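Appendix B, example 12.
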Amino acid sequence: MRIAQHCTKRNYVVFAAIGLFFFMISFSKPVFGQKGKTLPSPISSEAMFQEGMRHYIKEDFAEAILVWESLVNSLPNEPAIAFYLAKAHLAEKNTKSALMYARKAHELSPYSLDYGLFFAEQLLADKQISAALTCLNQLSQYDESHPEVNLLLAQAYLWSEQGALALKALDRADAYVGEYPAIIRTKEFIWLKQKRLLEALKAGERLIDLEEGEQILTWDQMDLAWDLSQADSIQTQLKALQLRHPDQGQLALLLTNSYIKQKNFESSLEQLRLAAANHEVLPSLVAQVTMKVFELIDDSIKWEQANQLASHWLSLYPEEPRFLAIQGDLYVSATKLEEGQRFYLRAARMGEPKYEVWQRIIQLDFELNAIDSASTHAKEALLHFPAQGFLNFQQGFAYYLQGNNEEAIRYLEIAKGIIKPSDNWNLQLFSMLGDVYHALNRPKESDDAFDRVLLINPTDDHVLNNYSYYLSLRKVRLDKAATMSRQLVDKFPKEGTYLDTYAWVLYQQGNYAEALKYLDLAIADEKSQSSAVWEHHGDALFRLGRVNEAVGSWKKAKDLPNANQILDKKIKMKQIVEN
């Protein structure tokens, strides 16, 4: 379960604690001259430096760089020139040169705090964490409690996954900085990374005492706190914190999660209501947690309690489609599909369209056998999500069920061009393509689609049955057809549809007696009796010379739905008539 992220009034990013304390460098007057060197005139050097500084102050950094780089050639051992060149290059976003000159300034004056801090910053920006730590630890030898050094050390330790050392560095800075919110937030993050939820919450408690309107954690940090809140030992402390700070919706959310883990439905609902009372908690977050709570529903009483809460959410958040979808989920879970469908449709047509909701709507149409509605809703959904493969598949499926194979193949082939091998409807698509290609008399493409399914799932019942039957109709590869259909007969020895398919393969192989045996078994399965089975039965009898019995089977076939029009001729002429 992931908590959705959103901004509070002061959304402190994890490392904001560091950024807020970066040092300010004053434009100090550089000191020129090195012992034993023949140097340019101090006046000309001073003038050149000040000329560069004038450009720098006006933010004409390129001109400042030109002046200072001409000067650094004459005075290569002056750290101040290298330092300001580094800053100018950084302003020009030339980070490589900025790092080079920052290194030079630090090496020329390793005791300078300003130069060392700036160099460490550039190292951190370049992800040279180990070098930054070396630089900062060297600086801390001169003043181990210096706040800026320790704040950068904390950042470097965090990036190198050394949370304990980062905390020590922050503690050393406390004496100078005090309980600053960004520092507290950084400590919270470290404790959460160390799975020390209670320490993080205690720090957050101090923060909300210092600043009115703050949340006990940032919403980013709630992601880390969420799973930790399920520990049994945490609940008592969370409840004690909540008594002291009842307006903190985050505490109610964490307690909701704790009760979810205990499968305590009533307490979960109670805490969820308290969380929603805090307007800092976004409706989207309330919706996420609500769905987790509703997974605990296992009887009609809980369902009714959940339904009351869902109705309450709709009154609080009338413009939030998520809660309409939740209401739809509730009705569907109680097999009240039509009621659920109505809420899904309202949710889908309110606000930003949601692909998952449209997908569920169309799936419900199929479950309700409302094929025309499935087609209509798929068209509407595709207006918003034309590149969603599964929606194209659903549209193609609806057209296939309506008997419109030309339109079906158009959408199915769009889906085929979009689908990924990992999609869980991969086999469904190619199975359907096999059927539609067959209906359109495109046998090779039909066979290829079926073979693709069997390559992944050699026991797919639908493909084994239809593939073998289509081969028997075309009177090709009958051995392959017999092998496939025999698999199903062995697996389902009383399933009339599979028995009929195997019998018809045997019939096409000329094994009429064996075919009749399996057709007798197929007829015994009353739920699978169809006009086609009885017609096949009559054909097998005719091939065995039992003409009158054959006519009797054909008559039974004629009286059933979807009867073949040629049956009248067969009955009248008492013989098999080819189409």
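The two ends are 61 Å apart (CA to CA). DSSP finds 32 helices and no strands in the chain.
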